[in-house]
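Backbone geometry:
***
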Amino acid sequence: MNAVCLVFLVRQKSVLASGRFEQVLHLLESDGGVPAQMYLSRGVLESINPDLQQRLKALLEAKKLELLGGAMFEPWLPLIPKPDAAAQLKQYSGVLQEMFGVFARGVWLLDCAWESQIASLLMAAGFEFTFLSTAQLERSAGLWITEDGGKTLRLFGFDSGLANALNLEPGDQVQTVLLELQDSNESVAEIELCLSRFSNFKLCSQVVDTQKPQALIYPKPSWNRSEPWRELLLNPQINWLHKRIARASGKLNAQFRVPEEAYQFLYRAQQASILAQPRLHSEAYQNIIESENILEPHKYSWLEIELLDFDCDGSDEVVAEAHTMNLYFKPSLGGLLLELDARNRSLNLVSQALSDHFIGAEESMSRFAAGQTLELGDFLNTPFEASKYRDRVTMTRIGTVRGPSGVPVSVEIKKAIRILPKESKLEVEYRLTNHGNWDIVTRFGSAWELELAGQDVALISGQKEIASKDLNLEHRTTQSLGVRQNAVRLELRLNFGRENLVWSFQKPDSILILPLWDLDLPKGRSRRIQYEIKLLEV
């Protein structure tokens, strides 16, 4: 058999405390120890003490260990802008050089996330080889080669896991045994049993220097070693965050002399573990906003509004950025507000807002919460026309509302949001116009679903705090309702100017606030509804 390459992945800091890492290190240090490759995540590198560092250095000097490079904050490289990917690869290599005095010739890609341009990216960073699963290669395990722009990169194909390694038959091709050390995993005895089946262990760099690849191949795009990674972006929340990261990256990379701290916040937002899980997105938004706060001025009042296809779906969004807040509107999806950033707290406050409901006066709060309410209008998730003028964003749509006996009546909604960043305030004005031939008597609601930064949340009705763990409440006569998040010392308050009916619904990670107005709208007439949103520090 030509060679066997043993690769250990160590990504969890807890592995150091569990003793698993010590056992493997002792195995490598023993007289009969075999050479191996090792990838250490950023968290593991930061947790290595001086004694452990010296032991790893000794193995490196004895040519019994080869450290692999990687991206500093473990993103999926195909999903982040190229300048950020290159910078993260360079930063991680710099840490290895500082700690161990080595430059890694090989690189580990998180979940083997791959697209064709990754080859050029890795080669530009100085790497000579990486690892992909046999499923991605659509080839057997072994040493292969790929190219991009006429430059070549070696690929080690592998079947992951100890069970697969135990089933490998010694043969003429290069075999790669890849093992990820976790808190609870295979025993060292099982690893030794696997190693005992092979004899010709080599470092990957030695194989690259002495062995010829089997053939030129072009791996298919994938993430998680087998699945097409772009399928992730079909999730609207993930796609939105992905584009938000790209926008922040574009801002930073377009400027000169950007403080390094701004980049570090951005790179933290790009972690694959955060991107893939919408429940963790608040952490990403926090880092994105922190990076923008460093870059953009906040000592004087400013506001910029633009229409652009932010999320690359073929329809324009409206982006309003100011020194105190950012707002992202999606006219094509019901004229929703999908992001409201409080820049002083580096926090996105909304899941979605300005969702327009027409419901019957007989409908109850419990039926609405259960999703059993009959929507009388067709304005939810339907496209609005958007425009901007000075400090105002306006969205308009002509749709229908069920009138008497279910007859569809033509109704126009024009909602205008005036942005007052110096006062941390939004003024919302609806103008509802009946263009049909029938009068309409119904209720109209404008819903706000707010992200929660913690469990310590209170409702403030007027000036009175509502002492209740259950925030599913009907507020019959209130002139204002606030949601106070004590963890971040911030309150979002809706002021109505007169007594109003408001429903509040608590969800696992959000709270829905639905103010309702009784709507008597004769044919040919208009009705104006106004309220304001105020951000208050508490």
Summary: The chain is about 25% helix and 35% strand. The mean pLDDT is 91.
